[in-house]
């Protein structure tokens, strides 16, 4: 009886739909004050004066902080070292400089939230204004090669120049993607409280309680044991809550200074300048191939903007490093431009989902140029060896994803000629894309407590950010112990539990889950040891390997013993298993997850409107622990990609240098009415190198390749090749 592989519903589902699940802003804290920030209206310059007198006298106000009276904070090193907790290195309210629109210039702390916000409107600031640097095709010419933070900035394998020259067919194109924002349903919220002993407790809407604890320890120079971070439920992260942002630091420092708990919640508009965003890209790609469509060379480079103080790189060109083989060679490169904006940050799916727009639209252009079917072209260029490092892929079911996805979609009946298919007033088009997504191997700890009533408790400081983490961890522990799933409780999101990594990079199942598996196995092994050699040992004389788990206990042949009985015989209230998953980060093989995406669109040519009609996603994310939560991830990822393809763009005012649309009415995301029935296929197999659970990264994979599949379908429908995302009305008319 295995629960792994079963489509279990969410352990916490009922709590969530009945309002019983406490999100950060729901946590009641007696005596907590509210903080409300005032933001710069200019994007570049300095403050000449700031007048807070009226605000200080406003009802309910306890204190007003500006750079003049804010406690000084030790400068922190630049972010973007691997797994670094900082979102942005520039510390706000420490000097009179203005580097981006929406930068906090004051923090009002009051008894009530409305009182704090109202007092903020009474603050007047005079600025010395300098013209902002914004990102566009002209300014991008000044982009430079940044220092590495994750992968090497440039790559060259084989002889790319010769490979590109050897091809008889060449596609050389530029593609652009837009600035985008995470727009989680749950806005950011933070609450800090210090006790008399100097212990700090933070309630935070975040993707990593331990990352925040480490941040506080470094920034405030206090030992990590003096900090507790709690984050039990999170209403969407998507990368925007992966790192620590300035509002959290403000709440921590101000709460210590005025000796009362302080909470800060961001408004939707504040989230646009306070917690990262996905930077726009200008990408150029050259594909060369022989007459049959076999790639001989690839060159891909990408330019993206960052803030003036951090070297954030969007590694878009990585998409071309390992996706397809090219006989001659592959080269890639990245550049960044300092602009007046807050520091960008990873957003589902960072790097890959942006880069695939170039790689996979260019592949479609190549398919038409050589006259080869786009699915066949990808099968032809599939590779079992990673071109980037020459290592074999641990598992790569790209071929299965392409063929099974094509079959489910009915690709074989597609007329390849653009503008060949109509349905009434609509032009119909079908497009495909392949995708690859990075798999990370990170350490994670967990504890599994087997209790005298025969139930178990899983404890780990990982995060549930909406993906079903409570549920899948319950399944892993239940199977390892031979317990029904409803006998397993799960506690997450608290630094008092064993240390885990942040819920980023689609790592939770494979890494944090492996920690749970090891902990559950350790608890089971202790139970087996008791059964063999404990008091009144039922299996005395047998060997451990012959003992199996059964429903609620252990079995040796036909003999069984319940865990509750075993613990009672030994006068034990609990057995505690510790799990410490500690893989070497670099595996001997190349580990990625893969997918093939098939989109059908209808285009109303007179109105320039695109609608998705059908979508099939076929995924290789290794073994699937819970097909229901995995399918839910895929549906979320596809919808996310529909936004990238058709709707999402954050425009910057070129003169003011600020994001123009800071809410759901100006910044469009897909709604239910935009989304048809979505089909999801799992085509992967158990991958032991990816994880002891056999799983590979899934959540972000599903957002990769969706946009190019849709854009390719738009071309097939209309004959118009759009190379600038999103595909909005004016580009089609
Ligand atoms: Mo994801 S953008 O690594 O939270």
Structure description:
Strand 19, helix 12 and strand 20 form a beta-alpha-beta unit. Helix content is 25%, strand content 24%. The longest helix is centred in the C-terminal third of the chain and has 26 residues. The protein is of the alpha+beta class and 733 residues long. It contains 17 helices and 27 strands. The site of dioxothiomolybdenum(VI) ion has 12 residues, from loops.
| Percentage of β-strand residues | 15-25%
Small molecules (ligands, ions, cofactors) in the structure: dioxothiomolybdenum(VI) ion
Give a count of the beta strands, DSSP E runs of length 2 or more: 27
Question: What is the share of helical residues?
Answer: 10-25%
Give average pLDDT, whole number. 96
* Coarse structural class: alpha+beta
Q: Rough shape?
A: globular
Instruction: Work out the helix count.
Output: 17
Biggest beta sheet attributes: 7 strands, mixed
Parts with pLDDT < 50 across at least 5 consecutive residues: none
